[in-house]
Design brief:
CATH superfamily of the largest domain: Immunoglobulins
Strand content: 35-45%
Number of helices: 3
Distance between the termini: 187 Å
CATH topology of the largest domain: Immunoglobulin-like
Order of helices and strands: HEEEEEEEEEEEEEEEEEEHEEEH
Largest sheet: 5 strands, antiparallel
Helix content: 10-25%
CATH class of the largest domain: Mainly Beta
Shape: rod-shaped
Length: 279
Amino acid sequence: MTARSDWIFFTCLFLDVLLLPHALDDISISFVNHTGPVIADKNYELQCLIKNGAPTKSITVRWYKQNKTIFTDTIKTPVKNIRKLKIQPNRSDDGAQYRCEAELEAEGPQRYQTMSSEHLNITVHFKPIIDETKLPSTVPVFRGYSEVLTCEAEGSPKPTIRWSLGANGIVDNENLTITELTPEDVYCNASNSVDWTTKRIKVVLKEDYLPLIAGLIAVAVAFISVIFIFIYSIYYKTAKMGRYSLKDAKPSEQNGNIAQNGKHNPIPMKKLSQSNILA
């Protein structure tokens, strides 16, 4: 190798080393015509802006979401170093991170360089969703009693809960106490900056027959008790007095009285004279 050849070789190597760091100057990711939070289930567009200081043969752009590749795009002889990606975030994407990565192939041998953008964090807003497991569509309320209804909703930003009772007014609270005076239809309204959601609850008034049944049972028990006491008292008096008979009565050997049923309790007997008998 001659001195001239050495000079050419080292000159090319120097230029390669000099130009390679400048093949990719910068790369950035951003929304197209949008700033701030995004709304769930709406379409948006991301753009990856690539700045390079040397001619390129091709650029391969990889899009990442939570560090997982979601799309790859390769452009031959690019004219504009801006690549775009359409997304449709949902509420589960709240807090997700996007980034783009560019792999550039410049003119000349071994001119590959890779650079990644900063992370783009997205905030997803979505309309309120009322928790129907805690709020049935029909609620019974017994006359003379009260019930408490609870309306909870998930949403971003946090929803505001309001109860509508028709002509009876509005209650700004998650909890609503209903009685027999509550209208038949009440509405739970959950709202935030995105939208609002309403759920109708039907209030069904019912009679409480338990006190009536308890009263009837008490009266029945009292009536049966009176009859039992009456029957028992008659039986007790009859059993205590006993039954007596003069049949087969015999005079007592001591005083000529008739023994009562063979017992020793004498019944005094008066002897009648002849004149008393004839009279």
